[in-house]
Amino acid sequence: MAKSASGYHCTECGWQTPKWTGRCGECQAWGTVGEMAPSRLVRAGIRAAGYGGSASGPRGVAGLGGGPVSTPAVPIGKVDATAASTRPTGLEELDRVLGGGLVPGAVLLLAGEPGVGKSTLLLEAGALVAATGPVLYVTGEESAAQVRLRADRIGAISDNLYLAAETDLDAIISHVVATNPSLLIIDSVQTISIAEIDGAPGGVTQVREVSAALTAVAKDRALPTILVGHVTKDGAVAGPRTLEHLVDVVLHFEGDRHSRLRMVRAVKNRYGPTDEVGCFDLGEYGLIGLADPSGLFLSRHHEPVPGTCVTVTLEGRRPLLAEVQALVAHSYLEVPRRVTSGLDSSRVGMVLAVLERRAGVKIGKSDIFTATVGGVRLTEPSADLAVALAIASSVSNLAIPQGVIAFGEVGLAGEVRPVAGVPRRVTEAERMGFRRAIVPATASGGAASDRDGIKVVEVADVAAAVQAALMD
User: Fold this and answer.
1) 440: which of 231, 272, 408, 456 fits an S-S bond (Cβ 3.0–4.6 Å)?
2) Alpha-carbon distance 472 to 463, whole Å?
3) How many CB atoms lie within 10 A of CB 22?
4) What is the CA radius of gyration of the chain?
5) Residues 6+ apart with CB under 8 A from 219
6) Using a CB cutoff of 8 Å and minimum separation of 24, what contacts does 32-40 make?
7) Residue 433 belongs to a domain with what CATH number?
8) Is 20 helix (H, G, I), strand (E, B) or coil?
9) Last residue of a domain, one of 59, 74, 96
10) How remote is the C-alpha of 193 from its chain's centroid?
11) Is 462 left (phi over 0), alpha (psi -120 to 50) or beta?
12) DSSP string of 197-221?
């Protein structure tokens, strides 16, 4: 008897094996490995390659046959592009990230840590979209009464906003047919399951099949669909990687639970830019869009304080001012402490080494604490120079004068490398009242110049930047 061509896979993590085992070799779960029959498409592909033994046609290609087409192929110039035009949600910061709004038939994945405000954001967006058409909000994690309480608190009440507490995909599709919504929100995709598919809700197989089915419904009905996704402890989207490939837009909702600031970033966007960021203020009555959030990341000092430096970071195409603080104190431990908050610890360690070796800043055996203000996280290399100047200011106990701003990437040789968007950063600093900017040297030779009322000081290395900030 010929051996079966089918294999086996784990219904929890998707691990595959040619023979049956009682325990998954990937997630170590017991009793989750089952038979996986080859699909019709795989068998057809084998026959097309000449291994299927079809007698008709060369290499068996004629045996494949054909299927009905949904729409005939047309020249690309005759395709109507108005069907893919964006429709604003009413939340300006969200529309900024999406590239103008929602596209009919688009599937969005919104991921974020628990409690960051994903449900609140989508409930507000759903209530605003409901002003132009029915919206179906499906909750699989809370009861309908719990969602109603949140909607009352944030003022997201609308007669066109329909709420359903369901976890079965067939029931959700029935709700879609009954309400014919203009927007579908699923909160969350990890709680939805298909009865005919093996595996628990949230497992790899269930998430993959549910996402594929919802995507098919969205494309067939030109229905914008937003899926809420969980994240792992590393910040990645939970579930199979296929989930991110299936959807059209992947958004990350970020924020420190001790801060009111929330940010929406586009990681993938087939219809708009991926370099935009939306800022929100999370309060008792919901989320409020912040068109100018720079003031949130600056502390207020009556007099200059040693160990602080202001920088300009580009979040997408939006320049934001942020303050970096550093405290250097004598250590009583064998291994001095290096603590960071809101900054990349590896880049801070590199800046410390460059300061001591290239700029002569005596750090020695000192505890060093670095942090940002307002809960903002700075990952852009342009913050290196501000970190270096804040540490040098704390070591020397000399404050950087008010009205001074600095940005630039620091290299291991001590050089200050150019960064993108220098004119945009300088313009934003001037708008916020700063009158002196320390920036990387360019081809002009590093000479200081005046630009629109703000003095731009170009420096070639870290030592020159420390001199310009603390000694001039």
Assistant:
1) 408
2) 13
3) 8
4) 28
5) 105
6) 32/199, 33/8, 33/9, 34/8, 34/9, 34/198, 35/6, 35/7, 35/8, 36/6, 36/7, 36/8, 36/9, 37/6, 38/5, 38/6, 38/7
7) 3.30.230.10
8) coil
9) 59
10) 26
11) alpha
12) S-S-TTSHHHHHHHHHHHHHHHHHH
Q: Are residues 104 and 247 in the same domain?
A: yes
- What is the rounded distance in angstroms from the CA atom of residue 370 to the CA atom of residue 378? 12
97 and 49 in one domain? no
- Name the DSSP letter for residue 78: G
* 71 found inside a domain: no
Same domain, 95 and 181: yes
Residues 134, 101 share a domain? yes
Q: Is the overall model pTM greater than 0.90, yes or no?
A: no
Is 217 part of a structural domain of the chain? Answer: yes
Position 17 in a domain: yes
115 and 261 co-located in one domain: yes
Same domain, 138 and 30: no
| In a shared domain, residues 36 and 114 | no
Give me the residue label for tokens 């325990």: 23
The verdict on 259 and 225 lying in the same domain is: yes
* Alpha-carbon dihedral 22, 26, 29, 31, rounded to 10 degrees: -30
Task: Report the domain count for the chain.
Answer: 3
Gap between the Cα atoms of 347 and 61, Å rounded: 57
What is the chain's pLDDT, residue by residue, as a tens digit (472 residues)? Answer: 344 456 888 877 778 888 888 888 888 888 888 877 554 333 334 344 444 444 444 444 445 556 788 788 999 988 888 878 899 999 999 999 999 999 999 999 999 998 899 999 999 999 999 999 999 999 999 999 999 999 999 999 999 999 999 999 999 999 999 999 999 999 999 999 998 888 888 888 899 899 999 999 999 999 999 999 988 877 788 777 788 989 999 999 988 777 788 889 899 999 888 878 898 988 888 899 988 887 778 887 778 899 999 999 988 778 889 999 999 999 999 999 999 999 999 999 999 999 999 999 999 889 999 999 887 889 899 999 999 999 999 999 999 999 999 999 999 999 999 999 999 999 999 989 999 999 999 744 444 455 667 999 999 999 999 999 998 6
**Cα 251 from Cα 238, distance rounded (Å):** 14
In a domain, 435, yes or no: yes
Which residue segment(s) compose the domain that 368 sits in? 296-471
51 vs 45: CA distance, rounded Å: 9
**Domain final residue pick, 263, 291, 319:** 291
For 230, phi and psi rounded to 5 degrees? -80, 165
